[in-house]
Design a protein that fits this description.
Bound molecules: zinc ion
CATH superfamily: Peptide deformylase
Number of domains: 1
CATH architecture: Alpha-Beta Complex
Strand content: 25-35%
Structural class: alpha+beta
Order of helices and strands: HEEEEEEEHH
Radius of gyration: 16 Å
Helix content: 25-40%
CATH topology: Peptide Deformylase
Strand order of the largest sheet: 1-2-3-6-7
Number of strands: 7
Largest sheet: 5 strands, antiparallel
Number of helices: 3
């Protein structure tokens, strides 16, 4: 297993729509292992393949608290098939937007259909932090970031800050 570099905004790849996975094979299994390693190392509670520059519909998530046993969850080609009318608000962050946090309101509970890492269909009923995390990660597969759910003023400020930092890194 190896950790992979996580891309950050304003990398245009983060705006790309990821393509469905057609084969659950050994290469995919290796990618899933690497994604868990990268996520735990970061550390984070969710990672979409596009964040390691692989535009495929794949997520890994582990919302277990510190000190609790690990609960690694893999979602291949996830699809939200139901969202609750009830909404909840969490302070979200993103490994691709380091050190920035903002409150985002989303449906409080969702049902997701996907494949597990064996390629078997799984239905996941999620609420609480898992529901928020799943929606945040599924957004990534559609090129959407959590800052798209906050005010344009705040979003523009964040993007400007990261664009400036990227230019500084490139020596521009
Ligand atoms: Zn994210």
């Amino acid at each position: 297993m190896t950790t992979k570099p996580i891309i950050i905004i304003p990398d245009p790849l983060l705006r790309q729509v990821s393509q469905p996975i057609e084969r659950v094979d050994e290469d995919l299994s290796r990618l899933i292992d690497d994604m868990f390693e990268t996520m735990y190392d970061a550390p984070g509670i969710g990672l979409a393949a596009i964040q390691v520059a692989v535009p495929r519909r794949l997520l890994v998530i582990d919302v277990a608290r510190e000190g609790e046993p690990k609960q690694p969850l893999t979602f291949i080609n996830p699809e939200i098939i139901h969202s609750s009318d009830a909404r909840s608000t969490y302070e979200e962050g993103c490994l691709s937007i380091p050190d920035y946090y903002a409150e985002v309101e989303r449906p409080a509970a969702i049902t997701v259909r996907s494949l597990d890492r064996e390629g078997k269909e799984q239905i996941t009923e999620a609420d609480g932090l898992l529901a928020t995390c799943l929606q945040h990660e599924i957004d990534h597969l559609n090129g959407t970031l959590f800052i798209d759910h906050i005010s344009k003023l705040k979003r523009d400020m964040v993007i400007k800050k990261f664009t400036k930092a990227a230019k500084a890194r490139a020596g521009l």
